[in-house]
Amino acid sequence: MKLLSLRLQNFRNYTDFVFEPDGLTVLVGKNGVGKTNIIEAIRFLTIFKSYRSKKQIEVIKWSEDWMRLEGRAKIANKNRTLEMYQDKTQKVAKIDKVNKNITQMIGLFRSVLFAPEDLSLVQGAPGLRRKWWDIVLSQKDRKYLKKLVMYYKVLKNRNHLLLKIFSGLANQDELDYWDNQLVENGEFLQKTRRTFTEHFNKSASHYYHTVSSEQQNLQINLKIKDISLPLLKERLNFDIKMRATTAGPHLDDFYFELGGRDLATFGSRGEFRSVILVSKIIEADFLREENDLPVILLDDILSELDQKRRNHLFEMFGEHQVIMTTTDAAGIEEKVRKGAKIVELN
Question: Where is the RecF/RecN/SMC N-terminal domain (predicted)?
Answer without folding.
Answer: 4-332
